[in-house]
Amino acid sequence: MTTAIPLLPCRKLDDVLPFYESLGFELTTRQERPNPYASTRWRNADLHFYAANSVGICLFIVDEVEELHAAFKRIGTWASNARITGMKPGQSRFTVFDPAGNSERPCEPREVLRDFKNDDAAAAKVLTQALARARDANPDEVKRAKVMLAERL
């Protein structure tokens, strides 16, 4: 099993940890020395934070994005510059901006471009371009792409 854990920067741990705890993340580790560092966990996802003057992005693939958005919005507002974007019916993602400026994007799993963009023509164009460059590609993936293109997506 392989696990990837996003490490997000923040100026101070106290800028972001209360925000994530209010969203339901559990603080699992915190250290101040030799370097400020903290780790949090929500369900089976980990986010770690370290002191730096920059920002990062983390993508969360979730099955219930609309329910999660509603739950986060019910929590309310924060005194800092943290915010949660709106979500129109049928959208597959939203963005959470934490007090440090990092953005987390919970989104539904999508396997085909047209499902994300609702644009069959754009998906066909991407598949056509990918197939033109697919000299060393996995034969099963090439076959799947050709079938999708032949079926006009």
TrEMBL record:
Q: InterPro entries under this entry?
A: Glyas_Bleomycin-R_OHBP_Dase (IPR029068)
Q: Which domain of life is it from?
A: Bacteria
Name it.
Glyoxalase
Q: Tell me what organism the protein belongs to.
A: Archangium gephyra
